[in-house]
Design goal:
single chain; about 120 residues; alpha+beta; six-stranded mixed beta sheet; about 25% helix; about 45% strand; globular; NTF2-like_dom_sf; SnoaL-like domain-containing protein
Length: about 120
Amino acid sequence: MLGAEEILRAVLDPWRDGIDAHDPDRVAGVFADDAIFQGLRPYSVGPQGVFEYYDAQPPGMTVQYRILESRRLGADVALGYLAADFAFRDRDTVHLNIGVVVIRTSKDWHIASYQASPATRG
């Protein structure tokens, strides 16, 4: 059985790669059909809202993340708490804390819940 961190990385690495490539389809593809997504704007449900959120981000935005905490909540569920740094070409980096719940669907592992909040880092 995979550990929680392995499961999270299997979903978050493609999420990161899609953001770095400014490919909102790829980013949205790691979210479950009924995923609750809360970026820094009003929440949405499902991959279309994720697509619209990341499609509106400026080209050149990239993200680096660190898993701070991870838990395997069951055979088909993992929880993660992340520190994420979103870098931009023409403005300061945005530091966020992100909580994710990842579930195993009939297809693969997907993000079922994503909630971001501003973080203060030294």
